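So, can you check this record?

>
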Amino acid sequence: NAMTTVLAPFRQMSEEEFRRVTEVTYLGYVNGTRAALEVMIPRDRGVIIQAGSALAWRSIPLQSAYCGAKAAIRGFTDAVRTELMHEKSHIQLTMVQLPGMNTAQFGWARNKMDQAMQPVPPVYQPEVAAEAIYSVVQRPVNELWVGKSTIQSILGQVFFPRLLDRL
C-alpha cells in the first residue's frame, strides 16, 4: 500500500512532485505486485490485495496525481487479474476500494493549500479497512467497495459524472 500525495491544484504542482506521487503510488503497487507474484507463481496460490480508493473511480480537485495513480492501479490490477485467469492460475488479485480514512496521511502529505486538509467526509476508522481487507483474504472477490460514500461515489461517477463534476 505504497502512497504519497501533494494537496494542491494541478497547475501549482511541479513536474517533479507529480512524478514522485506517480512513482511512489502507482509504481509502488506495480513493483509490490511483481514481488508477490515471484513468490506466489511457483506455488500457484495466494491472494494479492490492492488497497484502493473511491478516488480510483471518481477523481476530486486538489488530488490530480493521486487520483490518476489510483485509477492507473485499478487498470493495472484488472489487466494482471485477467492475465492470471488466462494462465489458469489459482492466485487471486483483488482491489478494495476504500472511503476517506482516519489516518496520518493528511498530516504528512505535502500541502500547498492555506489550511489543513482532511479526507472527504464521512471519514472512517482504520478498523473498517482492516476488516474489509481481512474479508477478501477469506473470500476473494475482484473488487470490494467499502462504505456508503464509496458506493455513492462510484455509482455517481457511472451514472451522473457531470453532476459530480459540478459538486
Summary: The helical segments are 15-43, 64-86, 105-108, 126-138, 148-159, 161-166. The radius of gyration is 16 Å. The first strand starts at residue 6 and ends at 7.
